[in-house]
Amino acid sequence: MNAIRVRQESDADSLAVGGDRAAAERDEAKRRRPSVIVKPDLRLQDPAALAEIELFGEVMVAAASSDHPLSPDELDEVLGLVEH
Fold this sequence. Notes:
Elements: H1 2-15, H2 21-32, H3 47-65, H4 72-78
Helix pairs in contact: 1-2
């Protein structure tokens, strides 16, 4: 790895004109950047995970609006496991 680092430094030095090493390093960094940048699709596309997130949100809202800890029966109702 040191050999690679030394090689990169020597490449930047050889590009330097008039001792402007910083400019040469910027030019070298631009040259090494990929010309096409692909952005990944970060949207969640898992229906099961989305359903879990929605249920968790409903539990959080119910817990926040309650003045006491939710009982197992109340949790079942919030989760839709018990009919009203």
